[in-house]
Amino acid sequence: MQEIKTIQIGETVPNFSMETYEPSKKTFGSFSLKDSIDQKKWTVLVFYPADFTFVCPTELQYLSEKHQELNKMDVNLISVSIDTKFVHMAWQEEEKLLKDVKYPMGSDTKGEIAKIFGVYDYKSGLAYRGTFIINPEGVLVASEINLNNVGRNMDELVRKIKAFIHCYKNPAEVCPAKWKEGGKTLKPSEKLVGKVYKELE
Predict the structure, then answer these.
(1) What domain range is 26 assigned to?
(2) Is the residue at 6 inside a domain?
(3) 165 in the same domain as 179
């Protein structure tokens, strides 16, 4: 079996593709990172263990509430598990928490994409709860990995995406902790060393 290199923060993500279920059209489709980069869009991958589980539908429901906002920011959002597109379709239609899910649901049936991002659990054959933000140039800029017994905060995901977009457009600036859209940023320089508190006053 060919060894798959785990991607690190700041590295360019190798191209990958996967089959999807598209709830907005009730049909099947596909996603490739190359297409997202060609579209000059951000890519957000939200891995979860499996369909027809327990914490997972609460996360995907919460994510569906953020989908329209992310879409307006030129973000391609894809949830990903080891399930097939057929199982995704059945789950989305059966589980009432998923009734408003419109983003693509990706199928990583062999776990190859999960291995690239270091979220594949070799014991269970499932993925951990991993969230990854990839910029329009294909560079991995953020990752979050949880054990499967704790769900994620999608408000924080949106906040981080907004911060990364701001810094991408304004490379001379950095965003301090708890930064929110429209908030004060910092411009690193020798004048700021030891004086950050003054800048934030």
Answers:
(1) 17-169
(2) no
(3) no
Catalytic residue positions?
Answer: 56
pLDDT tens-digit profile of 39-95?
Answer: 999 999 999 999 999 999 999 999 999 999 999 999 999 999 999 999 999 999 999
* Cα–Cα distance, 100 to 183 (Å, whole number): 31
Cα–Cα distance list, 154 to 11, 60, 67, 72, 121 (Å) = 24, 9, 10, 16, 23
Same domain, 110 and 200: no
Phi, psi of 20 (to 5 degrees): -135, 155
* Torsion angles phi and psi, residue 184, rounded to 5: -75, 135
Q: What pTM was computed for the model?
A: 0.95
Verify that 71 and 45 share a domain, yes or no. Answer: yes
Phi, psi (deg, nearest 5) at residue 12: -80, 130
